[in-house]
Amino acid sequence: MKRCQSLLFLLLFPLAISAQQNPSADELFLKARTTAFEQKDYNASISLAKEALKISPDYTDISIFLARLYTWNKDIVSARAVFEDLQKKGIKDEDYFVAYASLEYWNDQNANAIKIIDEGLVHHPSSEALWLLKAKVYFATDSYAEAEQAITNLLLINPKNTEARAFAVRINDFSSKNEVGITYNYSHFDKQFDDDWHIIGVSYKRMTSLGSVILRGNYANKFAQNGTQIELEAYPRLSKTFYLYVGAGYSEDVGLFPKYRTGVSLNANLPHSFEAEIGYRQLYFTNNIWLYTASVGKYYKNFWFNLRTYITPDSKNIAHSYTATVRYYTKSSQDYFAVQIGTGISPEENRNNLLENETFKLKTFKLGAAYNFAVYRNLFSVGTMYYNQEYLPNVKGNQFDITLGYTRKF
């Protein structure tokens, strides 16, 4: 019996050694992926993928991965050669179309990228990756209407696609050349002031090659007095990631509005659907008030979360304002419910004239909700906000706001 076992071992041992020395195509494919993703050694990964294809030359997934490796290694000629070979074979895999179109998009061959994407969508009409890539290609060529349509189609397939939701909001700012809008804000105080406030704003927004520019005129009736203000804002793009906010305002009716206001912020669209902002706001009534702001936002499925702070230093102490906002998107980037909660006064609010008498250093709590919706190119908004403010030391009052808005895109 022992002799039989020994003979069997001697017969099978060379086969075992051979199996260890000659891994399968799947094993080489797995090793190539590990080498690429964990070690970032694309040259070694390419060699492993080629070795796997010698064993299984018709293994489509390995060929697509090899083309991706060439793309990441900036060997565009070799990457295209692999994709063209797959094209001749009539490959219809979704990953093939995504990888091939991505190569062309990253190398500014946008017309060819769209051609490949459209062919892919014929075979995979519900491909979220292809619709998202199509939106990005059109956005890169300033074809904003086509980009908006592509991202809309994606969100109809999956409204909870986080990256698509974030990108839809970006596209929305570019989807029309012109916008005109009007807003009305009504404020009622139970103690702090005897008269209600009424504020009307009229704006015109123009999209340019550098970014959007907004001209706004405001009329206010506060403390039973009338006043006006003019504002100019711009959002110049610096790159695919960064853009600026630059704003200024002027009014002769100091007390109802600041005489001057300025602001600058650097904004960033970050990976994983994050966004961030840092900057300053300056208000001048009879003295300068400097406020420094920072915010961070995150898209997650149908939601957008944002936390913003304003910090106002002076010679004695530092005042803080914090606001948390949550939006729930229902359809497009213009249809959403919003809830807001916070403390303190911000310079963006219609109450910013209260900053002059330093009531911002006292305690303020605010809670509000809003609903925005679109009908074709008509945008409507309605919102309400409740404030509980310590307007004198240890004396609090309530304020109730209602805001209505309408914007027409063309």
From TrEMBL:
Q: Which InterPro entries match?
A: Beta-barrel_YaiO, TPR-like_helical_dom_sf
What superkingdom does the record give?
A: Bacteria
Membrane spanning residue stretches:
none
* Residue ranges occupied by any YaiO beta-barrel domain in the UniProt entry: 177-349
Which keywords does UniProt give here? Answer: Signal
The UniProt entry, under Pfam families, shows: TPR_19, YaiO
Signal sequence range: 1-19
Specify whether Signal is a keyword of the entry.
Answer: yes
Q: What is this protein called?
A: YaiO family outer membrane beta-barrel protein
Classification of source organism: Bacteria, Pseudomonadati, Bacteroidota, Flavobacteriia, Flavobacteriales
